[in-house]
Amino acid sequence: MNKNILELKVNNKDKNFEKYLRPQWSWKTLIFIVLFSSALVFVVKDLEIDFIKLVSDSSKYFGDILSRMLPPDFSNLSELIYAMFETIEIAFLGTFIAIVLSIPLGLFSARNLAPNYFIYLVCKTIVIFFRAIPEFIIAMILVIAIGFGAMPGVLALGLHTMGFLAKFYAEDIEHINKGPIDALKSSGATKSQIISFGVIPQILPSFVANNLYILDRNVRMATMLGIVGAGGIGYELQSSFRMFEYERVSAIIILIFVTIFLIDHFSAFIRSKIK
Questions:
Q1: How many domains does the chain have?
Q2: The model's pTM
Q3: Structural domain span for residue 84
Q4: What CATH number is given to the structural domain containing 226?
């Protein structure tokens, strides 16, 4: 009979792990929630935002503008497609420039690959500077400097997103597995060999994913840059708004959505093949 009785015994060793278990709602979590809620209330009060009035008033105006935008006007679809294609070209060339510029900056912005602290600091400063300046400001300066057209948009996207890509590259490089790097160093490999055989294979999937993300982002931002004279579908959108052609505006918005939708699926397909 004693063999058929299951005895539950507490393993005293398991009790040693209880001190490492933390409650989900600690006093630090509660303090953070209180501080965050206070900051949120302060911001809403300081900006004088009335959500009730916002919802009640905006619903009426949104209904009016949506009624003017329907049905979409695709009468000049060929012109819109050409403008959208120009926007994609601007985004593609801007992304290419960003990749070319960000590769050396990303390598030297990583602490574990920078030759010395001075070069690391200079590259880090350049990356932060161009990431901090919005595309609109860069595009406005370039439009004044070199005139209207696609080139200001290309350069604005390339310089601004270079800061993002270089940051992504540097962070990926700083978190790579150090084992292959140490093995190559011990075998007497040069700096270029270490980068080629120890760094690039580890960051290649994220490298492709980040580039595709920036391309997707640049297509959307190239649309907005057209408003300041950088060409593409953004210029058509601005012209339609100025002429109160809201039905044409809705057609442009639909075309932009379809383009981004296709690019997103294409990017997902490429990432699946890389992995």
A1: 1
A2: 0.71
A3: 75-274
A4: 1.10.3720.10
Determine, yes or no, domain membership for 79: yes
Cis amide linkage into residue 72, ω under 30° from 0: no
Where does 109-198 have alpha helices with state H? 117-132, 135-146, 150-174, 178-186, 191-194
CA atoms within 13 A on the CB side of 158: 19
In a domain, 110, yes or no: yes
Phi, psi of 23 (to 5 degrees): -70, 150
Amino acid in the structure at residue 105: L
- Tell me whether residue 159 is in a domain: yes
Torsion of CA 186, 191, 196, 200, to 10 degrees: 90
Q: Is residue 46 part of a domain?
A: no
Report the chain (275 residues): mean pLDDT per 10 consecutive residues: 46 52 68 88 80 71 74 81 85 88 84 80 87 83 78 85 86 76 72 72 77 84 74 77 81 86 81 68
Torsion over CA of 110, 114, 116 and 118, rounded to 10 degrees? -60
